[in-house]
Write a structure and sequence with these properties.
three-stranded antiparallel sheet, alpha+beta, 27% strand, 5 helices
């Protein structure tokens, strides 16, 4: 049902550029965590909610390619496994045989209810819990390719989504984050947001 809802939402709003990403807010600006399934996107998002970030969405980032704002899509956050110590799953989370669903009502803070300017895109790649995280700036060309790979509705846009991908990464600073120890990853990302947002 959840996947069907995401697909139907894309049909209702073909004007939006949908990316496979989690979106969080720090202040009045949004940061998209973009990654393929299994790369730590939702786990990183869950941890960031314990470091002062607020929630817009998980799995799907609806971006307006004309205003560069991200619309909230407050579905339950879906974890594939229990996160490391320090980021416990709430007792009332829904645990299935394969996933853990954390409803927004169980988050440390209320989700964001209004669209926010997309101010940073971070492409995640997990390198191991024992590793120190590394954050590095990406070129527009590399970021465009990575964004296209993670676009959910490219056929709804001109040039199969290429024009909008170029516009989004040209307007938005893009980084690759090699995620390691989760607490260190969150601290590194929060420091980068504060630096780039100020």
């Amino acid at each position: 049902f959840d996947k069907d809802l995401i697909i139907e939402t894309q049909k209702l709003r073909p004007d939006l550029y949908f990316v496979h990403a989690a979106v969080l807010a720090l202040g009045d600006r949004a940061i998209a965590l973009v990654a393929q399934s299994g790369f730590g996107k939702s786990t990183t998002a869950w941890a960031l909610l314990h470091h002062g970030f607020q929630y817009l969405s998980d799995e799907i980032a609806p971006i307006d390619p004309t205003t560069f704002r991200v619309l909230p899509f407050p579905r339950a956050l879906c974890l594939k496994k229990a996160p490391p110590n320090g980021y416990p799953v709430p007792r009332d989370a829904v645990i299935t045989g394969r996933t853990i669903h954390v409803p927004t009502s169980l988050f440390p803070d209320d989700p964001v209810a209004e669209p926010l300017m997309l101010s940073m895109i971070v492409f995640l790649h997990f390198i191991g819990e024992a590793q120190s995280p590394i954050l590095k700036r990406m070129s527009s060309a590399d970021a465009t390719v990575r964004l296209l790979i993670n676009t959910l509705n490219p056929l709804a846009h001109r040039q199969y989504g290429l024009d909008d991908a170029i516009a989004i990464v040209t307007k938005t600073p893009c980084f690759e984050l090699l995620t390691g120890d989760l607490r260190s990853t969150c601290e590194l990302l929060k420091a980068a947001c504060r630096r780039d947002f100020n």
